[in-house]
Amino acid sequence: MIPFDYERPSDVDGAIATATSRGSVAFLAGGTNLVDRMKLGVTEPELLVDLGGLPLDDVEELPDGGLRVGATVRNSDLAAHPVVLRDYPVLARALLSGASGQLRNLATTGGNLLQRTRCVYFQDVTTPCGKREPGTGCSAVGGSTRQHAILGASERCVATHPSDMAVAMAALDARVRVRGPEGERVIPLVDLHRLPGDEPERDTVLSGGDLITAVDLPPLPPGTRSLYRKVRDRASFAFALVSVAAVLRVEGGVVRDVRIALGGVAHKPWRATTAEEELLGGPATEEAFRRAAELELAAARPLSDNGFKVPLARNTIVAALRELSLEER
Amino acid sequence: MTEVMPPRALGQSPRRVDGPAKVTGTAPYAGDQRVTDPAYLELVQARVARGTVTGVDTTAALALDGVLAVLTPDNAPTLASTDDAELDAFRHEIGFRGQVVAAVVARTREIARQAAGLVRVEVDEHPHDVHLSADRDDLRAPEEVNAGFETDTDQGDVDAAMGEAAFSVDETYKTAWYNNNPMEPHTTTAQWTGDWLLLHDSTQGVHPTRETVAKVLGLDPEHVRVVAPHVGGGFGSKGTAHVHVVVAALAAQAVPGTPVKLALTRQQMFSLVGYRTPTIQRVRLGCDAGGRLSAVAVDVVEQTSRIKEYAEQTAVSSRMMYAAPNRRTTHRLAVLDVPVPSWMRAPGECPGMFALEAAVDELAIASGVDPVEFRIRNEPDVDPDSGKPFSSRNLVACLRDGARRFGWADRDPAPRVREEAGWLIGTGVASSTYPVNSMPGSVSTIRYVIPGRYRVEIGAADIGTGTWTSLAQVAADALGVPFEDVEMQIGDTALPNASVAGGSSGITSWGSTVVATARAFREKFGDDPDEGDEMTGEMPEASGDDYAMHAFGAQFAEVRVHVDTGEVRVPRLLGVFAAGRIVNPRLARSQLVGGMTMGLSMALHEESVLDERFGHVVNHDFAEYHIATNSDVPNVEAHWVEEDDPHVNPMGTKGIGEIGIVGTAAAIANAAYHATGVRVRELPLTLDHFLD
User: B265-276 in b/e burial notation, b at 16+ Cβ within 10 A?
Assistant: First the structure.
């Protein structure tokens, strides 16, 4: 670990001003991913700006019935919030399926969104990685790719985004509130993260000095059900091979609202819009679910070790929708 | 026949005497030893799998404030012995990716790590070869395999028997590359005082480590002291000294008077402390219409490193498990540019019994005989390999008792016919076995220190197994005094010589030594000794080679496989073992449950993934090298049958550290077949094998 400076501002504007004062800056929230990366030499900031002193740790109920989740709200607190438990079970389940109790007690909402891939080549400074060092290529292509992307990857990067929480938020049409040197803006969560393209080093659309202050969750109409299903190589404490966040409202056997997001399959939480369009207004049947999942996954480009993710994602989507539609009856 | 002691403390369950220190965090492990003003060591490792170091630029590292020394192939002291290439620290020739090529000593761990990143190593890279395959044309037969067993055996005519068999199996099974991951990483604190070297080392044997270090450094062993009162697991990887111990000693020599601390990172453990070789095992079994085996043949291909040979004895257990007149085993090695493989819990038996016991399950099913009954039908009268009688053999009792406890009798043999809430359910069985190993050379001293108090000294190791407690029980019974009257002193070369805590041989070897010493003490001083009376005794000569001595067990597993996702879960494991007299049921249960859990982890999760382009294990941390979590292990039961073996040793014990892992993976794979109808012949049993 190389030496670094440390600041702990007490307000958001101060944090942004401090962050834009230097070339190589990292915001420190829970630290559960950043500190690991610093130990590994993957991230070497000159300055850490600790967000622990900012007033961003509240969950606020909005007039429209939605929720505003502050950026430094801890994952364990959010998972236990009564409104989350009542109205957004998909989010509570996603949060509780991530990491371990100790990590969830530290990890924050903003930090969870901005955690970086756990691709073994990204995390190992002795192997080339264009996400870590732009222009050095992708070691995962042709290497070990069990955990890697089947959708939306490029030859420059096949890494996956590791968050569970973000997948649930993608299905909930969450909006991310960002404050930067130019002021405040709101970004749909599905647009926060990028596909790798030619710039795998850029995980998100944020730029220097941008600070996530909150995530807004819109209300769900009555009768809407949701769940999160995470499939992994052991029963606990593992990143998703495939996960599915599903939100479904069925009336009279007809799909009136459906939102599906996938984790573990792409460089970002993958909103399955093709499947959603196929299902909307149609029958809530096993055959329809399967057809929609297959349509979505027609774009999949599996790698040498992860061809199984295509049937796994298909089956998991179908199982999630089946479970939600059975609850309906 | 040995004179077996009547048990008093033996068979009781006194609590760990080291328990309070461990739960309060005051037990001094190697890295916790208080030393004055230590420096810290960080390793620089090779980034190629094969090559020659042509230069090391240490300028930037040495310029960093707080850096005390940088050792390189160009400035490191010449070693007295380089017979063991693994211990030849700072070689110019690189034999595997991750090999130590330089090391930095600095005032803090952080500075050492930063400086290590600034060391520039110039390497002339050579093409490497890390590809394990049974199809290679350069496979080599070792002179012998681990523990001194014959490389190949051949009895009868396997080919003819296979041709005549009513039912047969001819399949290839594969086990993964597994890395030892004890909770406590390998840690050494080294300090020189003149030409005396003190090592606080996390080791399974202080005396063997001393011998190795003294030889490599050219020291009088009496000038080396190794201390290890507590060790946070080893599983074989701390059974021999690895290169980091030599590096720590050399680094401390470079900063005279300053103690130097080295704790390997988790990532470094994947290349520097041994691992279990992956295996490819062709198993051929033939039986008659009644399920009686006529042929057992196992041909093993596995790997070793180019710089040092290690040949796992994978097929050895198949030589003695079941009766069959025609038998054949072979071991062949692919010699690769990989880290040096070594011991990992039950080397040989663990991977070997996966293949054999999965194949036996397949043959039992093919012949229409219940898998428990099939094994019972093939119980040998004598050791099929050596022809010797068994000192005791209670595999059948374990199978019957296990079947009763597990509820095997109601089992429908048909695969893929049980489903509950989306989970396919199956059950499976496998046998386990482990030899009774005895090591020569231990010595102990018993002293009557004050009235009512005996001090027993022996340099034995407690690697989490409970030696502090169980050896005191042995001593108490041997002396005929209450457990509380015995005080153990272990884990230090200042104490009398002790053999390694390896091969499940600890209690057999150290216990026999302590019993011999206690008997001599009583003979000389009687039952009413004077304060200060003292006796030193040695490990008796092995009582003879007249018997085949092994522990046995039966493992039962329930497996659930999810219909949609292929996820594999093991809601229940049950093992019954016949392992001689159980010294301390509380500690024994921990050992057996721990071994079974490690077997479950091997079956479902663990796999070191080699990237052949680079030559290293890419998933070298606990996020990606998956070890079973509590959620994966809901219910593990370990039981044992009463077994009186008068031949093994005066305690009547057989060793229990390793047998728990043997056969577990096969029981789980067999249960997964019963659940799904899908036969998976390679480990781990990841969900992709079961996806439709």
Answer: bebbbbbbbbbb
Answer whether A305's CB lies under 8 Å from A273's CB.
Answer: no
pTM of the model: 0.98
Compute the distance between CA of residue B591 and CA of residue B589 in angstroms, rounded to an integer. 5
Strands B326-336 and B293-305 turn out to be parallel
- A207 close to A201: Cβ distance less than 8 angstroms: no
Q: Are A171 and A271 in contact (CB under 8 A)?
A: yes
Q: Where are the alpha helices (DSSP H) in B458-511?
A: 467-479, 506
Strand partners, B279: B175, B302
Q: Does A185 touch chain B (CB under 8 A)?
A: no
Task: Quote the ipTM score.
Answer: 0.97
Strands B187-193, B443-450: parallel, antiparallel or unpaired by DSSP?
Answer: unpaired
Pick from A203, A228, A40: nearest CA to A131 = A203
Residue B609: list chain A partners with CB under 8 A: 144, 146
**Residues composing chain B:** 692
Which residues of A46-94 form beta strands (DSSP E)? 47-50, 59-61, 67-70
Torsion angle (degrees, nearest 10) of CA B56, A41, A236, B624: -30
For residue B609, what is the nearest residue in chain A, using CA coordinates? Answer: A144
The amino acid that residue B182 corresponds to is P
Question: For chain A, what is the total number of helices (H) and then of strands (E)?
Answer: 12, 12
Give the integer Cα–Cα distance in Å for B458 and B444.
5
Q: Does A109 touch chain B (CB under 8 A)?
A: no
Give the A window 299-318 contacts with B, CB below 8 Å. Answer: 308, 311-312, 315-316, 318
SS3 A50: strand
- Per-residue pLDDT band at A329 (split at 50, 70, 90): very low
pLDDT tens by residue, B583-632: 999 999 999 999 999 999 999 999 999 999 999 999 999 999 999 999 99
What's the CA gap between B583 and B653, in Å, rounded?
7
Q: What are φ and ψ of residue B55, in 5° steps? A: -175, 150
Q: Is B377 helix (H, G, I), strand (E, B) or coil?
A: helix
- Nearest C-alpha of chain A: how many angstroms from B109? 9
Contact call for residues B314 and B629 (beta carbons, < 8 A): no
Q: Show the tokens assigned to B405.
A: 């406890």
B310 in Cβ contact with B144 (< 8 Å): no
Residue B243: which H helix or E strand, with range? Answer: helix B243-254
User: CA-CA distances (angstroms) from residue B396 to A130, B253, B605?
Assistant: 59, 57, 30
The dihedral built from the CA positions of residue B671, B674, B675 and B678, taken in this order, carries a sign that is positive
* pLDDT for the residue numbered A284: 98
Is B523 one of the annotated active-site residues of the chain?
A: no
For residues B152 and B141, is the Cβ–Cβ distance under 8 A?
yes
Digit-coded pLDDT (tens) for A229-243: 999 999 999 999 999
Helix (H, G, I), strand (E, B) or coil at A36: helix
- Lookup: tokens for B262: 């080295």
Q: Is A312 exposed, middle or buried (0-12, 13-18, 19+ CB in 10 A)?
A: buried
Is there a contact between B629 and A231 if contact means CB atoms under 8 Å apart?
no
Q: How many other β-carbons are positioned within 10 Å of the β-carbon of residue B455?
A: 16
What share of residues in chain B are helix, strand, coil (percent, to 5)?
A: 30, 25, 45
Closest residue by Cα to residue B232 from B191, B271, B177, B269: B269
> How far does CA B468 lie from the centroid of its chain?
20
Query: Which three-class secondary structure state does DSSP give residue B519?
Result: helix
Count CB-CB contacts under 10 A for residue B143.
9
Q: Give the number of residues written for chain A.
A: 329
